Amino acid sequence: MGLVMADDAKHRNVLAAIVYRLRWWLVTGALLVAFTLWTGEFHQAQTTAILASTLRHSTPLVLGALCGMLGERSGVINIGIEGQMLMSAWGGFMVASATGDLLIGVLAGVAVGMLMGAVLAGISVGLRGDQIIAGTVLNIAAIGITSFFFTQGRTLPSGKLRPIRLGPLADLPVAGRVLFSNKPITYLTLLLVPVVWFGLFRTTWGLRTRAVGEHPSAAETVGISVVGMRYLNLILGGGIAGLAGAYLSLEAVGSFERGMTNGKGFVALAVMIFGRWNPIGAWGAALLFGYASAVQTQFQFRDWLTSDPQFVGMIPFVVTIVVLAGFVGRARPPASIGQPYSRE
Amino acid sequence: MNIRSALVPVLAVALAIAVGAVIIALSGSSPVDAYRALIEGSLSDPKSIGRTLEKATPLVMGGLAVAFAFKAGLFNIGGQGQLVVGAIIAGAVGYGISDLPWIIHAPLALLVGALAGAAWGAIPGVLKATRGAHEVITTIMLNFVALNLTDWLASKVWREPGVIVRTPRIEPSAEIPRWGEIPTGFFLAVVAALACWYLLRGTTFGFEIQSVGLNADAARYAGISVRRIFVTTMAISGMLAGLGGAIETNGIVGRYEPGFNAGLGFEGITIALLARTHPLGVIPAAILIGAMQAGGSMMQFKADVQPEITKIIQALILVFVATPIIVRWLLNKREADELSVSSTWGS
Q1: Where are the domains of chain A?
Q2: How many angstroms separate the first and last alpha carbons of chain B?
Q3: Which CATH architecture has domain A36-328?
Q4: What percent of chain B has pLDDT over 90?
Q5: What is the ipTM of this complex?
Q6: Which of B136, B311, B338 is the closest to A269 by Cβ?
Q7: Which residue, of B83, B105, B200, B314, is most buried by count of CB atoms within 10 Å of its CB?
Q8: Contact yes or no for A308 and B138 at CB 8 A
Q9: Per-residue pLDDT tens over the stretch B244-263
Q10: Domain total of chain B
Q11: Closest chain B C-alpha to A118 CA, distance in angstroms
Q12: CA–CA distance from A321 to each of B53, B137, B227 (Å)?
């Protein structure tokens, strides 16, 4: 009897601890739900629209953050996410436009992203150059290459990627439109978040990645190839950033424009740090940012600040600063980050 | 900085230009014509040299802002925001006040612009010092906030009547004059670089900044207030960028127009890295990039080569600057002095 009670108390404590640990997320979540319902005037259609828009805005950010995370977890800073996304958006669009096949376009975007990841790895791991410079190289090169080799007037013969309705689930109220009638890359993103989390924290690959990021020489002494792990992770991450690029040109917009990433790669970097180098955390941060972007339409709906749209445009960025400074505070990156590794 | 390490950027530039020539040739144009046009548009006569220095001036300031913050281990990606805030405030002071003598009005506009940049730059410093918020996030976010804020100021508060969204032209008394073809603002930028160099090398404050940059924990143990250094360094970094924007408004463009200096803040990162974060190295780095910008349109006009090729060349320069192995091989040196700016990412 006593044992059961102790067990019960322990369970309650664990639950309380979890609730306490997540308190700011829960408070923020509750506030957001209340705000969404209120601004939508309790209309189902408005609430659905705002949630669907949140998901759309968060997709490229969470993908970019996952890319950065794979690099940083293995000890390599990647500030070139912006460039990786831009190059992939361009590569994916050019290939899709030439072949007329969107799937080949998406695959090309992913391949371009992986190539960019390999270049980053080549400079920062292979040649042991400075990682921040390597990332800056990607950003500049992407602007240069995508503009230098871009031909105006290209279109997608087959249009952009179309939503896939998941059978009867798509007919559910609210959740149906928000979660079950999305476009392919959005589904893939929702799948990638738990997959990367599982990979990082529950598999040998993840353990090795984190070991290399925290203490590379110790990892090397037990036979893990530091250089190999970093190459692998940067190339995988590049592929994920490539997916974000393909999302922009092939799923969201349906064409390529110069500089179309417009800072999303940098925001993704912020989302990664905000989410404390954890896929679930980054997803939460991206959703928060996406929500703050989506809420702009609600402001229009309520006719608030419509004459000064600039203030509405600031909301996502101000919210991020306030939440970061107010609730999250200091974050600790992997220990070996930024240092080129050499065996001597 | 000895002669050999100064050789590194020079070799890097030469290599990058060579690879750039191959790319131009592959795209079906003549690299000789392209580079000739590039030089013609940027360095051939007083007018084009003036244009190069005009482009280089805000680049020096943006590069200094990034390089200075690096010395304290801070990565200021927010140069863009600090620059536009300084630019619009200086423009407002420039057109809003009349009947002031030049000797007061022009410096006042620059000073207020610089202070506005300092205030904008201090925000991430304070947030990092008090709340531990990572400056990379906050400076990026503040860039977007500044973009919206200046857009609003230019389109609502200080708008010139008419269809174009911009502030009115500044009073003649607020203009920073030109010295022949050369904008005087360039000399101000050089003075700023010298001041940064002296501050870092010759003063206790500079020593404290560098101590924090090398090892914040050791600096704290030695009795340096790391928080104070974070705030003051970010404020100075923001001030440099803000002054750059102010010079751009009052010395070159004559008013604030949204978007006229888009990207200048990000070029600062390239320039600081190219200069290997040395305050004086920023000057030649900025002139080089400025020349590429000034000659780019001539290259397009005469040789039919897209000016974006200069971006590719810049990226190549950085690759060669950043990779010690290539440099070591070129100089046949056993130990090249390696450049590291990434080491303080996590603090």
Answers
A1: 36-328
A2: 27
A3: Orthogonal Bundle (1.10)
A4: 46
A5: 0.83
A6: B136
A7: B83
A8: no
A9: 999 999 988 888 888 766 66
A10: 1
A11: 14
A12: 37, 8, 19
